[in-house]
Specification:
With about 70 residues, the chain is mostly beta strands. About 10% of the residues lie in helices and about 35% in strands. The chain has a five-stranded antiparallel beta sheet with strand order 4-3-2-1-5, with no helix packed on it. Strand 2 and strand 3 form a beta hairpin. The longest helix is centred in the N-terminal third of the chain and has 8 residues.
Length: about 70
């Protein structure tokens, strides 16, 4: 599904994982340059992407959003 949304709208996606759960989320970039994704959209829980190794980039290279 994320591949189709990327192709239709150009949205980028990451795969995230922690000790309790995992998932695929859309990447967002705030005006301040902060890159983030909603871990749980229903509860508006946001995770910031600080390092490119923090998530698996599915539809684009990390360099598109991060400089390090």
């Amino acid at each position: 599904m994320y591949k189709l949304l990327h192709k239709l709208f150009g949205w980028d996606y990451v795969y995230w994982k922690n000790s309790a759960d995992n998932g695929i989320a859309r990447v967002h970039k705030a005006q301040e340059g902060v890159v983030y994704y909603y871990r749980y959209k229903s509860t508006q829980l946001i995770d910031k992407v600080l390092k490119k190794e923090q998530v698996v980039w599915l539809t684009c290279p990390a360099s598109k959003y991060l400089e390090n």
